[in-house]
Every structure is written in C-alpha cells, then in structure tokens.
Amino acid sequence: MTDTYFPRRGNEGYLVETYDLTLDYRVGPNRLAAVAVLTVWTTQALTSLVLDLADLRVDRVILQDGRRLRFEHQKEKLRIRLPGLVPAGHQLVLEIVYRGSPRPTSSRYGGLGWEQLDDGVLVASQPTGAPSWFPCDDRPDRKSAYRFTITTASQYQVVTNGRLAGVAHSGSTSTWSYVQDAPMATYLATVQIGPYQRHELPGAVPQRLVAPARRMTAAREALAHQDAMITLFTDLFGPYPFDDAYTVVVTDDRLEIPIEAQGMSLFGANHMDLEWANQRLIAHELAHQWFGNSLTLGSWRDIWLHEGFACYSEWLWSQASGYRDTDEQARTWHHRLKQQPEDLILANPGPANLFDDRVYKRGALTLHALRRSVGDEAFFNTLRTWTAEYRHGTVTTDGFLKTVATVTGRDLSTFFAEWLWDERLPQLP
C-alpha cells in the first residue's frame, strides 16, 4: 500500500525493474526533451498502469511491440491504458516520450525535485520530488536499477548516480551515460549539471570532487578529513555500501542545506570550510550512504532510521576528530531538547514534523542511550549486522528492533517503548 504520509504518491499493481532515462536538456531556456523506458513487472492483473509525473507534457506512450497506448495525465498522475487485461507476473516495457520546462513540485517543505541554479541544475527530491523530472512509482520501498543518458551543452559537466559509462562529444553538445545497478529509491535519483571540474580525492574508497574551478581549492581543504570519516564509518558500520565511488558536488550557489543522493552528496559553496558547523554536515551526508541510501526506509514514518543515525554519526566523528566526545554531545542535546515541546513521537512524527530537528537529535539520543545500555561491543555489532543484513534493501523500525534483540540477546521492549513511542523525553542511562 502507498505511504500514509503521502497518499498521492506511489501506485499499486506493479514493480519497476529498470528506469532507462534519456534526457536532452538546454540549461538557459530550461527546456527538457526526454524519453523514459520502464521495464515493469505486474504484481496483479491490470487493465491500466498509473505513474507519478508532474507538470511535463506527455507526447506518447509506446508498448514494446510498437503499439501506442492511450493515456490520461492530470493531477500529477499518468494513467496508461493497457491493451486488455495483463495478468500478474507479466513483463511490460513502456516507452514514455515527454517534454517541457521542469520545475520543483510543491510541498509543505517547499519546492522539491528539479531546480535551476544560477548556471546549471540540481535535483533534490526528498521526499516526493522525483515526478518533477521523470515518470515513476514514487515511493521509497520500491527500488530499481537506473540508466541515465543526458545530453547538454559541452561547457557543462553532468553528474548523476552510478558509474560513468562514457562521454560522447558532438559539436556544441556532449552526452553523458551513467549506470546505477545498485537498487535505488526514486527520491534518491539525481542530476547535477554545471560548469564544473572533476578532481579525484585520495582514499581506499574512490572519492571524487566535482566543483567550479574557483571553488575547488576551498572544497579540497574542507574535505581534507573525509577519507578519515570513511575509515571511521567503515570500521563502525561495515564496508562502504556502493561499488562505484563517493562523489561530492559543490555548487557555485549558496544552499540552505546540503543534500545526499545515492553515491553522492551535494553542498553549497557556503558549506566548504573547516568549521565544525560544516564538518558535521560532511559527516552527516556521508553517513547517509549507509543509513538512507543502502538501507532505505519503507515508510516515511521511520525517518529516524535515516536522520537519527546520520546525526549520531556526526557525534561519532566529533569524538574521533577531537572536537567533543559522544557523551558530551548527548548531554548537550538532551538538555536542549528538554527545553522544547515534548510532543513528538520519534517512530511516527507525522508529515509536519518529518524534518523537525527534534527527530534528528532524539534519534541520535536514542542510539546513544542504546549504546550506553548494551555496551560498545554489542552496539556496534548491531550496526554492522544491520547494514549487512539489509544492504541495498528496505528497512523498518520493527526490523531494527529485531536486529537489536538478536545481536544483544536482551529484551529491550521497555527501553524502545520509552524512546520511540513516548512523547516524553527519557533520561539518558
């Protein structure tokens, strides 16, 4: 069933195995001409198939045998009429030709998805912005493989998820091809276009920096400790979960907040310095590669499984880097949360509180309290077991509690009832 937080997103009756997206984009006029080829498996008998797609014009939908299909596109839903009843377990390959001027979709969190920069594009879709630029089944529990073929003016670099398969230059344009084989949720699919340069960073895990030339020196200095962060997180959480690389994109624009996508993170020029306020963000977005991108929530009510874990990763880096130890961070934030309204249920905060800072900090406090209760060995064994068992998969709060019980051999139901389901903030152990 679709997510109760966003009932207008997501659909039933099928699974998308692969999204193959071919985009021709003109930066200046913001014009997109695109073809999306979706390989779909039906999970129930269907006479029509519904996709999420926002304010772009659909020209035609073609079945794999060449037949054109009838469709209706309204209220951000693309309803495709199939040629008769298609049984469950059947493969369909749909080609959707569309075009327009992509723009962010509206939400209570502001515009989401495809967004123009001063000179380029960024895509930040969490939680419901993917339909701003491609037709999809926009729900986090549906992961797929992706292929991207993106053509734009040659003065721009294109960065998206996965492995760069090639770049072909033709006159004034260049075509960039990427392959993302690791399963990925729609909201984590991204495109970054800008007048960038590329620089390889040293480290056991391949790392790439993509930034404007005038931002490159500051970005390299700001990311000087990133490899140490990867080493720490690999030791505590398990191997870096993606085979290709970890890419950091730095825009020439100022951004309010950084953004993670699968295999990469995006920062504004204003985030590139060695101050703790920004170093913690570098650690936070990196940690999302484990908690959020490899292990992705099945329902948005479980957002603490992303943000609480990434916030606690900040505190772990804080101690490892000699800034403040985790106990001090926990005490500080526990005191601050006690000064705020205690009206939030961590394991079901509601759509209005999805990105409330209390979710981040109380999630981190829950993990610290768990660590204090079971000890370091059992706690970090739990995290490594968690990331290994659900690598590239979908996770739930119940699943995490079961992993904790299995690894620790303890009944912690009262502990979790207080920390996850009680509005009142418990005392730290």
Gyration radius (Cα, Å) is 22 Å
Characterize the main sheet. 8 strands, mixed
CATH topology of the largest domain: Immunoglobulin-like
Molecular shape: globular
Give the beta-strand count. 22
CATH class of the largest domain: Mainly Beta
By secondary-structure content and strand pairing, the structural class works out as alpha+beta
Walkthrough of the structure:
- This protein has 429 residues and is α+β, with helices and mostly antiparallel strands.
- It has three domains: 1-192, Immunoglobulin-like, CATH 2.60.40; 196-289, Orthogonal Bundle (Neutral Protease, domain 2); 296-421, Neutral Protease Domain 2 (Neutral Protease, domain 2).
- Helices cover 27% and strands 32% of the residues.
- It is built from nine helices and 22 strands.
- The protein has an eight-stranded mixed sheet, with no helix packed on it.
- A hairpin with a 2-residue loop joins β19 and β20.
- The longest helix has 18 residues, at 357-374.
- The chain is globular, with a radius of gyration of 22 Å.
- The relative contact order is 0.09.
- The mean pLDDT is 97.
- It comes from Catenulispora yoronensis.
- Belongs to the peptidase M1 family.
- Residues 17-188 form the Aminopeptidase N-like N-terminal domain.
- Its cofactor is Zn(2+).
- This is Aminopeptidase N.
